[in-house]
Fold this sequence. Notes:
By secondary structure, the protein is mainly alpha-helical. The protein is 68% helix and 0% strand. The chain is built from five helices and no strands.
Amino acid sequence: MSARWRTARNRLHLPDDFRLHDWWASKITNDLDNHDNPVEVSANARHHSPGYTMTRYGRRRAEGAKKLAASSASRIGLATLV
């Protein structure tokens, strides 16, 4: 599998550290951000329950954006975000 993956990755000009799971996690997050049905997203991801999918992927992007904003604000000396 690794030789096939390396060949496919090279053809697609993907970085050497790109993993299929990274792509799949982005797809799940994008589907949830687009308000797709969580039951269908969970079934497509082959997770055991929609609750697991929502816990694992449901808030990732919003939380990441808040952390990035807070980090940037503290670096430039802002006490709070408006």
